[in-house]
Specification:
Elements (H helix, E strand, L loop, with lengths): L10 H10 L22 E2 L16 E2 L1 H13 L4 H11 L12 H11 L2 H11 E5 L2 H12 L14 H10 L3 E6 L2 E6 L2
Parallel strand pairs: 1-2
Antiparallel strand pairs: 3-5, 4-5
The chain binds zinc ion.
């Protein structure tokens, strides 16, 4: 392994630099000390920007670590919306704050639970069922929404919502993650 430091330039700034250096028309001679070198096929652990104009270098592929780094930035809430859009686009990830307006606390809790921010962003929309006061509160809503007990008449009053929620969690169907005022509910299917 080696660490290499040089200026990274976009195509346009690179071409201008080539002209300024009087190397216009010369072929790239491969990996040598004669610069400039071309970055086609290279990859990076973080998004790279042109050192001259600041444009994102889309031609530099992100590694898995690079996508995770972008995902972590996205779920931490990037203030620069333009940058967030460019990075999410480059990493092929949903942009939680701008395009989707997701609850970032819930996304972060989901990422902590999964151990990867990339997977959290890719599965959040499917999995997230909302924020509830408690697991039991989720169960009441779920049973009502699905009409599970609509045919049992007065027997419904004996239904144990708390036990139902607990069984959903133990059986792996649901994940409840505590948050300040209750729980975030996630479906695992
Ligand atoms: Zn540039």
């Amino acid at each position: 392994m080696f660490i290499h430091r040089s200026a990274l330039l976009c195509d346009e700034c690179g071409e201008n630099e080539v002209i300024a250096l009087g190397m216009s028309g010369k072929e790239d001679d491969g990996d040598s000390n004669e610069w400039p070198q071309y970055s086609q096929g290279s990859e990076s652990d973080s998004p790279d920007h042109c050192d001259n104009c600041g444009d994102l270098l889309y031609e530099v592929t992100l590694t898995d670590d690079g996508r995770e780094a972008v995902a972590l930035c996205l779920i931490s809430g990037m203030h620069d919306e333009t940058l967030a859009c460019e990075w999410s686009d480059h990493a092929d990830l949903p942009n939680p704050g701008v395009d989707h307006d997701w609850n970032l606390d819930a996304v972060r809790a989901w990422a902590d639970n999964l151990g990867t921010a990339v997977e959290a962003l890719e599965t959040f929309e499917e999995a997230y069922m909302g924020q509830y006061d408690s697991e039991e509160d989720w169960a009441v809503q779920y049973v009502e929404d699905t009409g599970m007990l609509s045919n049992v008449g007065e027997l419904a009053m004996y239904f144990d919502y708390k036990a139902f929620a607990r069984d959903c969690q133990l059986g792996g169907d649901m994940t409840f993650l505590t948050c300040g005022l209750g729980v975030f509910a996630f479906s695992n299917y």
